[in-house]
Amino acid sequence: MNANLNSIRAKLEIRPGRLFIGGQWLDWDGARFDQINPNDNQIIGTFAEAGQRGVDLAVAAARHAFDDGPWPTLPAQDRKRILQPIIERIYELEAELATLQTLDNGMPYSFSRHSRASGKSCADILDHHAGWCDKITGETFPRHSSSSNLQYLTYRDPVGVVGAILAWNVPLNMFAIKVGPALASGCTVVLKPSEYTNLAVTRLVEIFAESDLPPGVVNFVTGGAETGAALAGHPGVDKVTFTGSAAVGERIVSVSGANMKRLSLELGGKSAGIVFPEARSVASAATTMMGLCSTFLSGQVCTTPSRALVHRSIFDEFVHHASEQVKQVRFGDPFDPATTSAPIISRAQVERIRNLIDSGIEQGARLAFGGEECDDIPGGGNWIAPALFLDVDPGMRIAREEFFGPVLCAIPFDSEEEAIRLANDSEYGLAGCIFTTDIAQGMRVARSIRTGAIGINGYASVANAPMGGVKRSGLGREGGWASIDAFTEIKTVAINLDG
Ligand code: NAD
């Protein structure tokens, strides 16, 4: 392993390879797998492959804690009082958590420590959701007809045992956006991080393990597709909350029918950024969009607008500023403050991105710059030079499939109607952004695009507002009340007032 990474890793006391089930750490006697660091393709940790057996144990513990334990019925204030010190501890350990996240997925430490994907952000998300504990209320209804004298009211019951399956790109935030609302609602959880990023989540679970949370409320299994599938299909799980690819999301839908599992699916995207001549600055729009594809996680973010729809009158100016932006990109040691970008998470993902780039060239698109693998970066690692495709036909694979990498496709348009049509010409509908100073235009276009979220002159998800996708980008929303809604079931009670 890279000497710097090795010495940082050695100083951290996290103990990989264990499962946390029913309030106990379990030294796993079954299969194991290696986590590979994308900065140097060396082993950074060895973890338990929980498989069906580990998942059975974890679901049984979560089931027991839900069916027989105090958590679902605990007074709201007590639930909140148990969560609050956990959140404070995460704030205290935010630097360590940021370090682990960087060791996990190569996110430059400057982002892991200070951006919206930081340890602090993880605590902020948990804090927001803990605030809901004593605000989850039902409704009362006026008498509807004279034929009965029944008073109707509703409760919000926790949905039950939750299987939470995470993607790899922002493990700290992803943990919080799933565990936070589940616990606030009174659910119990079996959580599985991505097989690519176990370190930061293991540390978070250690913090939960040291708290006053009753045994079995949070359970933690590690593993890959086999373990994920065991959790998604388990008859003891009432709800699956999943973040990942649309392909795996579709598999989860197909196995969830047996016991009518509730589903929240946060899946992929092919979002459009639309730049109008009325944009405040074409340079700023180009720098933002190319920057989202080239810095931070190198385009490996679900909401990244990877299709730039640019008015023909400003197209060349946009391309010029995008090509200037990539000159700022620096690859290398993620703990060096000069490093701007993360490596591609795995060799398999490098191959997938390269294959999609090749398909673009074969189908007649033109690379303005980038797209080649950079194998001369000290320390090795998976690096692809940020790329901009021109002469893109909307029917090409590069305009339709998610890269989840550092590639932007620029497509010109001539009218607002054409921009809307191009933006909607996608099987995905996750996010997007409109660059214009004409607020009426911004609102018109925002309302016309089929997407779960969209920004006018900027977009980022936050803990207290809903985020999620339409079409192939998923089911349900995360953030704010929408999360609580998704982790609770409405129970209607009728009281006969005639006694
Ligand atoms: P992935 O679908 O390959 O894996 C996600 C998780 O699913 C992992 O934990 C994996 O082990 C597990 N898994 C794999 N096969 C499974 C199966 N058959 N049953 C159950 N679980 C299984 O995705 P990834 O590469 O980790 O993440 C990248 C994808 O996630 C991209 O498509 C990206 O757009 C999406 N993403 C979406 C959001 C969002 O909020 N919408 C956020 C981040 C990432």
What share of residues is helical?
Answer: 25-40%
* Level-1 CATH class name of the largest domain: Alpha Beta
As a percent range, the share of strand residues is 15-25%
Mean pLDDT: 96
How many E-type strands? 21
The second-level CATH architecture of the largest domain is: 3-Layer(aba) Sandwich
Q: Give the distinct bound molecules.
A: nicotinamide-adenine-dinucleotide
Identify the overall geometry. globular
Low-pLDDT stretches are: none
Largest sheet: spatial strand order: 13-14-15-12-11-17-18
Task: Walk me through this protein's architecture.
With 499 residues, this protein is an alpha/beta fold. The chain has 2 domains: 3-267, Aldehyde Dehydrogenase, Chain A, domain 1, CATH 3.40.605; 271-429 and 431-467, Aldehyde Dehydrogenase, Chain A, domain 2. It contains 17 helices and 21 strands. It has helices spanning 3-11, 51-67, 76-92, 94-105, 109-114, 119-130, 171-185, 199-209, 225-232, 246-256, 282-294, 315-325, 347-362, 397-400, 416-424, 439-448, 481-486, and strands at 18-21, 24-27, 32-36, 43-48, 150-158, 161-165, 188-192, 218-220, 239-243, 262-266, 271-275, 305-311, 366-369, 387-390, 407-413, 428-429, 432-435, 455-456, 470-471, 474-475, 488-496. The strands form 6 sheets. A 7-stranded mixed sheet has the order 13-14-15-12-11-17-18, sandwiched between helices. It has a 6-stranded mixed sheet with strand order 8-7-6-9-10-20, sandwiched between helices. Strands 1-2 form a two-stranded antiparallel sheet. The termini are far apart. Bound molecules: nicotinamide-adenine-dinucleotide. Nicotinamide-adenine-dinucleotide binds at residues 165-169, 192, 194-195, 224-225, 228-229, 232, 243-245, 248, 251-252, 266-269, 302, 402, 404, 430, 469, 474.
